[in-house]
Amino acid sequence: AQTVTQSQPEMSVQEAETVTLSCTYDTSESNYYLFWYKQPPSRQMILVIRQEAYKQQNATENRFSVNFQKAAKSFSLKISDSQLGDTAMYFCAFIPSGGSNYKLTFGKGTLLTVNP
Amino acid sequence: KAGVTQTPRYLIKTRGQQVTLSCSPISGHRSVSWYQQTPGQGLQFLFEYFSETQRNKGNFPGRFSGRQFSNSRSEMNVSTLELGDSALYLCASSLALVSGELFFGEGSRLTVL
Question: CA 20 to 30 Å from A68, out of A80, A86, B62, B69?
Answer without folding.
Answer: A86
